[in-house]
Amino acid sequence: MQKIIKQTIVRDISWLAFNARVLQEANDPTNHLYDRLRFLGIFSNNLDEFFRVRVAALSKMVLLGKSAKMHLEANPDKILRKIQQIVITQQQEFDGAYSDIISKLGEEQIFIKNEKQLSAKQKEFVAKYFEEKVRTQIIPLMIESIPQMPLLRDKSIYLACVLGKTKESMSQRYALIEIPTKVLPRFVIMPSIKGGTDIILLEDIIRHNLPMLFAPFGFDRFLGYIIKVTRDAELETDNDVNTNLIEELEKGLKNRKRGRATRFVYDRQIEPVLLNYLVKRLGLSKKDNLIPGGRIHNFKDFIDFPATIFKNKRLRPDKPFVHPLLQQPCRIMEIIEKRDVMLHLPYHSFDSVIDLLREAAIDPFVQSVRIALYRVAKNSKIINALINAVRNGKDVTVVLELRARFDEEANMRWKAQLEEEGVKVVLGIPNMKVHAKICVIKKREFNRTKQYGFVSTGNLNENTATYYGDHTLLTTDRAIIADLNRVFDYIEQPLKKAAALKACRTLPISPVNMRRVMMANIVKQIRLASKKKPSSIIIKLNSLVDQVLIDKIYLAAKAGVNVQLIIRGICCAYTEQRAFKGSLRALSIIDDYLEHARVFLFGTGNSRQVYISSADWMVRNLDHRVEVACPIKDKEIQEELADILNIQLAENVKGRILDNEQSNNYVQRAGSEPKVRSQEAIYKYLHKKSYK
């Protein structure tokens, strides 16, 4: 009998395979050039965060020696070496994709010019732009004259300059200039010939004007190379319940700015003497991630490449539309008293969630609102609705997770604003992030209490809701609402209400029983398969990492269960094993929208169990966070979710098979099989759907 391979793929290598799928989209000639540039930006932004978090963590584990190897089941030093090999290879693919895009842009008379390619008129424009907009925003640092190397900011790019004098060939100085992209646009449209568009990057405007900066000091030779440093972004805070979390976060944020460098990226044309000097002054070594690249870094800015210059830009499938049952004017609370409603974002409009909270703020019978927020929009309509609820005399409690990575400062500002307006703000739990996206609205009308709530797989953020694929259940189900209240009770008073989570009967909750409930559902399907009865598992996640649940999935496939996985990002499971009697197929979809939902479907027909959740199958989500999974009881909504999952499983345009080698091969269409681009197909499916 064949044995199951119990090992799993190293999560960091699997993550790099995910980012390779994003790079594939940048390389795909069938995508619009604007989208290809956007995917280059997404790839770059993803990689920056990977080095800030995962590479930083691995670097720390190297110092732990054997204990880290036991924890990772692999040598962290070996993983880091593999990461560097993969990243350098991907950088070469990235450069090739960018070169091809530049060529195709030229065919459309769109040119990204550097400082050496300017016409006389453009040189005049660039000099004037520099003098009026740029010069006062930059202060060159003569780094050889500074005893201690200035701290290079994470997320910033720098022009490393070599300054020379023709008459003194041995006289050479170095300078650093931070490119002011926080206050000025990275892309500047220049005057160009009729019918064409010429763009110059901000750093090339500065390069062109280096003589204006340094010639007064006797220099007449100027070279500039872009460099960037990525730093450890982990916040180390004291999780003791008596610690002032705000003070700890403020301290951690200051330390983050000084975090250890985890990557140094440089223009591969940089003068070797300057490169060696910078590496030495920054305290780096050959063991660190020194990544050679092209002239341009911080490609994340290409996510915001000017769209207006394209005459035929491909739009996303279609604009979000309001759920047919929630068309305004209507009373949303009255509608969900009669039936559950599921919003499928970004196909359905997120406005319905805002409308519900606005309605709660206005309704004279609403007494209280409790809501958990993780990441909200910069100008949040959610926050605005909650503040107006307080102004209208409602009791509003907001669970605000201050430790949402990279949103810590924004959430601290929201805390101050909410408290100033009279909102009760709860800051979460020591040692545990609150990642659940939940809400309960309490109403007292004619001596009768009514409660309304929602559970979402994604952030309550109207900006990301336009391109994140998520599900939000609006419900008045008493069992679900009762458990949501227990979750809020626990979060608000974790010491006094420690038993509240364990009292939940309907909602699987992390860290209490979600893992156990999911395992029980898998075991049930294994038993059905052993009895030759229909069995099926469909799991949709961002990341599948947890070893215990992966082992259970292996057992299900070995028993003959048909297991299908839709995993956007990390997939640590070996999907191809001879021991499997059933199928174990893993699919990843990378397209216009970010597939963000977590959905679990066990079984078939009337015995089917369906859940949505905020939790990925990772140790941190299942054991170290407050997360919620919600059973879908309404048969019509169950069918709706099943249909959406099946459309995604039929994806054969933007789908990749996740095999043991993480080779990212596209799903191949068989013969005359029609094309299925699932995001477009789901939009059409939902747009046509009618409700009784």
Structure report:
By secondary structure, this protein is α/β, with parallel strands linked by helices. It has three domains: 11-309, polyphosphate kinase like; 324-506, Endonuclease Chain A (Endonuclease, Chain A); 510-688, Endonuclease, Chain A, CATH 3.30.870.10. Helix content is 37%, strand content 21%. The strands form four sheets. Strands 13, 17, 18, 19, 20, 22, 23, 24, 25 and 26 form a ten-stranded mixed sheet that branches. Helix 1 (11-27) packs antiparallel against helix 2 and helix 11 packs parallel to helix 12. Residues 236-243 have low confidence and may be disordered.
Throw out a few tags for this protein.
692 residues; Endonuclease, Chain A; 3 domains; ten-stranded mixed sheet; eight-stranded mixed sheet; 19 helices; 26 strands; globular
Please give the structural blueprint:
Blueprint: H1 11-27, H2 33-62, H3 66-72, H4 76-107, E1 110-113, H5 120-134, E2 158-165, E3 168-178, E4 187-190, E5 197-201, H6 202-208, H7 210-214, E6 221-231, H8 245-257, E7 261-267, H9 272-281, E8 290-293, H10 332-338, E9 341-345, H11 351-362, E10 366-373, H12 381-391, E11 395-400, H13 408-420, E12 424-426, E13 433-434, E14 437-445, E15 448-456, E16 468-475, H14 478-492, E17 509-510, H15 514-530, E18 536-541, H16 547-559, E19 562-567, E20 584-589, E21 594-595, E22 598-602, E23 609-613, H17 619-623, E24 625-631, H18 635-649, E25 655-657, E26 665-666, H19 678-688
Parallel strand pairs: 1-5, 7-8, 10-11, 11-12, 13-24, 16-21, 18-19, 19-20
Antiparallel strand pairs: 2-3, 2-6, 4-5, 6-7, 9-16, 10-14, 14-15, 15-16, 17-24, 18-22, 20-25, 22-23, 23-24, 25-26
